[in-house]
Protein backbone atom coordinates (compact mmCIF):
# COMPACT_ATOMS: atom_id res chain seq x y z
CA UNK A 1 0.00 0.00 0.00
CA UNK A 2 1.37 3.41 -0.96
CA UNK A 3 1.80 6.13 1.66
CA UNK A 4 -1.11 8.11 0.21
CA UNK A 5 -3.38 5.05 0.07
CA UNK A 6 -2.52 4.22 3.67
CA UNK A 7 -3.29 7.77 4.77
CA UNK A 8 -6.77 7.68 3.23
CA UNK A 9 -7.68 4.04 3.96
CA UNK A 10 -10.87 3.41 5.93
CA UNK A 11 -10.41 1.72 9.33
CA UNK A 12 -11.49 -1.86 9.95
CA UNK A 13 -15.24 -1.73 10.56
CA UNK A 14 -15.32 -3.93 13.64
CA UNK A 15 -12.39 -2.12 15.24
CA UNK A 16 -14.04 1.23 14.48
CA UNK A 17 -17.42 0.24 15.94
CA UNK A 18 -15.83 -1.10 19.11
CA UNK A 19 -13.74 2.05 19.50
CA UNK A 20 -16.73 4.35 19.00
CA UNK A 21 -18.79 2.41 21.56
CA UNK A 22 -15.96 2.63 24.06
CA UNK A 23 -15.61 6.41 24.03
CA UNK A 24 -17.21 8.56 26.72
CA UNK A 25 -19.52 9.96 24.03
CA UNK A 26 -20.51 6.47 22.89
CA UNK A 27 -21.19 5.17 26.38
CA UNK A 28 -23.29 8.20 27.27
CA UNK A 29 -25.67 8.16 24.30
CA UNK A 30 -26.00 4.37 24.35
CA UNK A 31 -27.16 4.49 27.98
CA UNK A 32 -29.70 7.19 27.11
CA UNK A 33 -30.80 5.17 24.09
CA UNK A 34 -31.34 2.03 26.16
CA UNK A 35 -33.46 3.88 28.72
CA UNK A 36 -35.59 5.46 26.00
CA UNK A 37 -36.56 2.03 24.64
CA UNK A 38 -38.22 1.06 27.92
CA UNK A 39 -37.24 -2.59 27.62
CA UNK A 40 -38.82 -5.06 30.04
CA UNK A 41 -38.53 -8.80 30.72
CA UNK A 42 -40.33 -10.79 28.05
CA UNK A 43 -39.98 -8.22 25.28
CA UNK A 44 -38.94 -9.23 21.78
CA UNK A 45 -36.53 -6.66 20.34
CA UNK A 46 -34.77 -6.37 16.99
CA UNK A 47 -31.46 -4.59 16.51
CA UNK A 48 -31.22 -3.33 12.92
CA UNK A 49 -27.69 -3.43 11.55
CA UNK A 50 -26.41 -5.11 14.69
CA UNK A 51 -22.83 -5.19 13.42
CA UNK A 52 -20.47 -7.28 15.56
CA UNK A 53 -23.05 -7.47 18.33
CA UNK A 54 -21.90 -4.38 20.21
CA UNK A 55 -25.27 -3.83 21.91
CA UNK A 56 -26.88 -7.27 21.82
CA UNK A 57 -25.69 -8.15 25.32
CA UNK A 58 -27.26 -5.05 26.89
CA UNK A 59 -30.53 -5.77 25.12
CA UNK A 60 -30.48 -9.43 26.18
CA UNK A 61 -29.89 -8.46 29.81
CA UNK A 62 -32.81 -6.01 29.68
CA UNK A 63 -35.37 -8.47 28.26
CA UNK A 64 -34.18 -11.40 30.38
CA UNK A 65 -34.50 -15.11 29.81
CA UNK A 66 -38.18 -14.78 28.86
CA UNK A 67 -37.44 -12.20 26.18
CA UNK A 68 -35.67 -12.44 22.85
CA UNK A 69 -33.20 -10.34 20.89
CA UNK A 70 -32.86 -10.58 17.13
CA UNK A 71 -29.79 -9.05 15.50
CA UNK A 72 -30.15 -8.34 11.78
CA UNK A 73 -27.22 -7.50 9.51
CA UNK A 74 -26.41 -8.02 5.85
CA UNK A 75 -22.66 -8.53 6.37
CA UNK A 76 -21.61 -12.17 7.00
CA UNK A 77 -18.46 -11.03 8.79
CA UNK A 78 -20.47 -8.95 11.24
CA UNK A 79 -22.90 -11.77 11.93
CA UNK A 80 -20.04 -14.21 12.47
CA UNK A 81 -18.42 -11.92 15.02
CA UNK A 82 -21.73 -11.25 16.76
CA UNK A 83 -22.34 -15.00 16.93
CA UNK A 84 -18.91 -15.57 18.44
CA UNK A 85 -19.42 -12.88 21.08
CA UNK A 86 -22.87 -14.04 22.13
CA UNK A 87 -22.71 -17.80 21.64
CA UNK A 88 -23.55 -18.30 25.33
CA UNK A 89 -26.80 -16.32 25.18
CA UNK A 90 -29.77 -18.52 24.22
CA UNK A 91 -32.09 -15.50 23.93
CA UNK A 92 -30.00 -13.89 21.16
CA UNK A 93 -30.73 -14.86 17.56
CA UNK A 94 -28.94 -13.59 14.46
CA UNK A 95 -30.49 -13.27 11.02
CA UNK A 96 -28.99 -12.25 7.70
CA UNK A 97 -31.08 -9.56 6.07
CA UNK A 98 -31.43 -6.05 4.79
CA UNK A 99 -33.21 -3.24 6.62
CA UNK A 100 -35.24 -2.55 3.48
CA UNK A 101 -36.72 -6.05 3.66
CA UNK A 102 -36.52 -7.26 7.25
CA UNK A 103 -36.58 -11.05 7.76
CA UNK A 104 -39.38 -10.75 10.33
CA UNK A 105 -43.10 -11.40 10.31
CA UNK A 106 -45.63 -8.59 10.57
CA UNK A 107 -46.30 -7.36 14.13
CA UNK A 108 -43.77 -9.78 15.62
CA UNK A 109 -41.61 -7.61 17.92
CA UNK A 110 -42.19 -5.19 20.81
CA UNK A 111 -39.15 -2.98 20.30
CA UNK A 112 -36.78 -2.06 17.47
CA UNK A 113 -33.62 -0.01 17.40
CA UNK A 114 -31.37 1.49 14.74
CA UNK A 115 -28.10 2.89 16.01
CA UNK A 116 -26.17 4.92 13.41
CA UNK A 117 -27.57 2.71 10.66
CA UNK A 118 -30.02 4.91 8.77
CA UNK A 119 -27.26 7.33 7.81
CA UNK A 120 -25.83 4.60 5.59
CA UNK A 121 -28.87 2.88 4.04
CA UNK A 122 -30.12 3.43 0.50
CA UNK A 123 -33.62 4.63 1.42
CA UNK A 124 -34.19 5.55 5.09
CA UNK A 125 -37.95 5.97 4.56
CA UNK A 126 -38.19 2.38 3.29
CA UNK A 127 -36.26 1.03 6.28
CA UNK A 128 -38.49 2.94 8.72
CA UNK A 129 -41.61 1.61 6.97
CA UNK A 130 -40.26 -1.93 7.44
CA UNK A 131 -39.90 -1.33 11.16
CA UNK A 132 -43.49 -0.08 11.29
CA UNK A 133 -44.55 -3.34 9.66
CA UNK A 134 -42.78 -5.65 12.11
CA UNK A 135 -43.67 -3.79 15.33
CA UNK A 136 -46.68 -4.81 17.35
CA UNK A 137 -49.31 -2.13 18.08
CA UNK A 138 -47.89 0.17 20.73
CA UNK A 139 -44.34 -1.02 20.09
CA UNK A 140 -41.44 1.42 20.23
CA UNK A 141 -38.78 2.21 17.65
CA UNK A 142 -35.62 3.91 18.88
CA UNK A 143 -33.31 5.71 16.46
CA UNK A 144 -29.92 7.27 17.13
CA UNK A 145 -28.44 9.20 14.22
CA UNK A 146 -25.96 12.06 13.85
CA UNK A 147 -26.46 15.26 11.92
CA UNK A 148 -23.12 15.59 10.17
CA UNK A 149 -23.91 19.11 9.01
CA UNK A 150 -23.42 20.09 12.65
CA UNK A 151 -19.80 18.85 12.72
CA UNK A 152 -17.37 21.52 13.92
CA UNK A 153 -13.65 21.54 14.60
CA UNK A 154 -12.44 24.50 16.66
CA UNK A 155 -9.28 25.93 15.10
CA UNK A 156 -7.92 29.38 14.25
CA UNK A 157 -8.07 28.54 10.54
CA UNK A 158 -11.86 28.62 10.36
CA UNK A 159 -11.90 28.29 6.57
CA UNK A 160 -10.00 24.99 6.61
CA UNK A 161 -12.15 23.70 9.48
CA UNK A 162 -15.33 24.49 7.57
CA UNK A 163 -14.06 22.94 4.35
CA UNK A 164 -13.03 19.82 6.23
CA UNK A 165 -16.40 19.52 7.96
CA UNK A 166 -18.35 19.93 4.73
CA UNK A 167 -16.14 17.44 2.93
CA UNK A 168 -16.42 14.86 5.74
CA UNK A 169 -20.21 15.26 5.88
CA UNK A 170 -20.42 14.83 2.14
CA UNK A 171 -18.90 11.36 2.40
CA UNK A 172 -21.89 10.07 4.41
CA UNK A 173 -24.82 8.88 2.31
CA UNK A 174 -27.55 10.41 4.49
CA UNK A 175 -25.57 13.03 6.37
CA UNK A 176 -28.57 14.92 7.73
CA UNK A 177 -30.84 11.99 8.58
CA UNK A 178 -30.69 12.78 12.30
CA UNK A 179 -32.76 15.94 11.85
CA UNK A 180 -35.11 14.11 9.48
CA UNK A 181 -36.10 11.26 11.81
CA UNK A 182 -39.24 12.95 13.12
CA UNK A 183 -40.54 13.72 9.63
CA UNK A 184 -39.73 10.28 8.23
CA UNK A 185 -41.20 8.42 11.21
CA UNK A 186 -44.40 10.46 11.15
CA UNK A 187 -44.79 9.79 7.42
CA UNK A 188 -44.47 6.04 8.13
CA UNK A 189 -47.38 6.18 10.60
CA UNK A 190 -45.48 6.47 13.87
CA UNK A 191 -46.35 8.74 16.77
CA UNK A 192 -43.30 10.55 18.12
CA UNK A 193 -42.75 9.84 21.83
CA UNK A 194 -39.49 11.69 22.48
CA UNK A 195 -36.78 13.69 20.76
CA UNK A 196 -33.42 14.42 22.33
CA UNK A 197 -30.47 16.30 20.86
CA UNK A 198 -27.25 14.97 22.39
CA UNK A 199 -23.97 16.84 21.93
CA UNK A 200 -21.04 14.61 21.04
CA UNK A 201 -17.97 16.52 22.25
CA UNK A 202 -14.32 15.49 21.88
CA UNK A 203 -11.53 17.14 23.86
CA UNK A 204 -8.53 15.12 22.73
CA UNK A 205 -7.13 14.83 19.23
CA UNK A 206 -6.46 11.09 19.26
CA UNK A 207 -10.03 10.09 20.09
CA UNK A 208 -11.50 12.58 17.62
CA UNK A 209 -9.12 11.38 14.91
CA UNK A 210 -10.16 7.78 15.55
CA UNK A 211 -13.89 8.55 15.36
CA UNK A 212 -14.06 11.49 12.95
CA UNK A 213 -11.12 10.56 10.75
CA UNK A 214 -9.38 13.93 10.95
CA UNK A 215 -6.18 12.67 9.32
CA UNK A 216 -7.67 10.34 6.72
CA UNK A 217 -10.48 12.70 5.69
CA UNK A 218 -8.17 15.70 5.44
CA UNK A 219 -5.87 13.58 3.25
CA UNK A 220 -8.87 12.67 1.10
CA UNK A 221 -9.86 16.34 0.93
CA UNK A 222 -6.36 17.22 -0.31
CA UNK A 223 -6.59 14.43 -2.87
CA UNK A 224 -9.96 15.80 -4.03
CA UNK A 225 -8.64 19.35 -4.31
CA UNK A 226 -10.87 20.66 -1.51
CA UNK A 227 -7.93 21.51 0.76
CA UNK A 228 -4.40 22.62 -0.08
CA UNK A 229 -1.78 20.25 1.28
CA UNK A 230 0.05 23.02 3.15
CA UNK A 231 -3.18 24.21 4.80
CA UNK A 232 -4.19 20.71 5.85
CA UNK A 233 -0.74 19.93 7.22
CA UNK A 234 -0.60 23.09 9.35
CA UNK A 235 -4.20 22.60 10.50
CA UNK A 236 -3.54 19.05 11.69
CA UNK A 237 -0.32 20.04 13.42
CA UNK A 238 -2.05 22.78 15.40
CA UNK A 239 -4.90 20.44 16.30
CA UNK A 240 -2.41 17.89 17.63
CA UNK A 241 -0.51 20.35 19.81
CA UNK A 242 -3.04 22.96 20.90
CA UNK A 243 -6.16 22.83 23.09
CA UNK A 244 -8.57 20.60 21.18
CA UNK A 245 -12.33 20.77 20.74
CA UNK A 246 -14.64 19.24 18.16
CA UNK A 247 -18.18 17.91 18.13
CA UNK A 248 -21.47 17.28 16.42
CA UNK A 249 -25.10 16.64 17.37
CA UNK A 250 -26.78 13.27 17.80
CA UNK A 251 -30.55 12.93 17.62
CA UNK A 252 -32.24 10.26 19.73
CA UNK A 253 -35.82 9.74 18.62
CA UNK A 254 -38.36 7.30 20.03
CA UNK A 255 -41.49 6.60 17.98
CA UNK A 256 -44.54 4.46 18.81
CA UNK A 257 -46.38 2.20 16.39
Kindly describe this structure.
The protein has 257 residues and is of the alpha/beta class. It has a single domain, classed as Vaccinia Virus protein VP39 (Rossmann fold, 3-Layer(aba) Sandwich), CATH 3.40.50.150. Helix content is 44%, strand content 25%. The protein has 11 helices and 7 strands. The chain has helices at residues 3-8, 13-22, 24-37, 56-63, 76-85, 124-134, 158-170, 177-187, 205-212, 214-223, 229-241, and strands at 44-48, 68-73, 92-96, 109-115, 135-153, 191-202, 246-256. It has a 7-stranded mixed beta sheet, sandwiched between helices. Strand 4 (109-115), helix 6 and strand 5 form a beta-alpha-beta unit. Helix 6 (124-134) packs across helix 8 (177-187). The chain is elongated. The termini are far apart.
Summarize the structure.
By secondary structure, the protein is α/β, with parallel strands linked by helices. 44% of the residues lie in helices and 25% in strands.
List its traits:
Rossmann fold, about 260 residues, alpha/beta, seven-stranded mixed sheet, single chain, 11 helices
Q: Can you write the helix and strand succession as a string?
A: HHHEHEHEEHEHHEHHHE
CATH superfamily: Vaccinia Virus protein VP39
- Give the strand content: 25-35%
Which term fits the overall shape?
elongated
* Overall mean confidence score, pLDDT: 95
What portion of residues is helical? 40-55%
Rg for CA atoms? 19 Å
Strand order of the largest sheet: 3-2-1-4-5-7-6
Structural class: alpha/beta
Any guess at the CATH architecture?
3-Layer(aba) Sandwich
Amino acid sequence: MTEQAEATAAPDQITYLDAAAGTTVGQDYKQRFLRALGLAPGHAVVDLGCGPGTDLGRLADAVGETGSVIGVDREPRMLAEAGRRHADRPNVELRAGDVHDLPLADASVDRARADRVLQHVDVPASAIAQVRRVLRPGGLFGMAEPDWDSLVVAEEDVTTSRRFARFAAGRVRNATVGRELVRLSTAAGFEIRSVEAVPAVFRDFETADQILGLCRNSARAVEAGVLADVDAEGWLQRLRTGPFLSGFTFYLVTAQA
